[in-house]
Amino acid sequence: MARRMRDEAFRIEQEHGRYASHVRPINEMVDALRDQDGRGWMPHVAPWHGGVEARALSILRDPGPKTQEGVGSGFLCVENDDPTAELQVQLFEGAGIAPRDVTPWNAYPWYINRSPKAAEIQAGVEVLKQLLGLMPKIEVVLLQGNEAQDAWRRLLKTHPGTVRELSLKVVSTYHPGRQALFTPDPEERSRRAQHRVDSFQTVGDVLRGAVGQP
After folding, report:
1. Model-level pTM?
2. Contacts of residue 26, Cβ cutoff 8 Å, sequence gap at least 6
């Protein structure tokens, strides 16, 4: 079960490892991007995750409130104290994916806590390109939700060479937030929930070598 960030010892461990070797390049990039063009604050990636050593990149929409310092952990982490993070833990564990297999990210990586506009997603694409350049072992990208999928389409359009060179497996599914299942049709809700489970399983299969690269 998620929410290890509730535990003070775990939280302190993450803070002490903020610039550990496997996350230092990403978190130094975050430091440089904070308040760029007046965009404001951006959370670091928790050392609980794989950082530049990760083989999978998980992209959501934007950092949630529990990624804020003073409000939450100050990190992107599946162990944050919120329902979305808790579902992420369940889905990753169910698919046999360890925290160090993955680096979490967002289509719009600055904190806004709302849907990013098209121009904001485009700004996020430029950061995403930088991030991919820091992850030499990446094999698979998990796009969770419309904004993440939009960001990837924009990346393909503006930087097609970057994506071709990496030969990545790309898996798209619904956002892990509750709103993704808001539909009066119970069969559709069940289908969407199962689609998420199956998508995470595909990511796990890629990491285990059970799915060929494109």
Report:
1. 0.94
2. 44, 45, 51, 52, 103, 131, 134
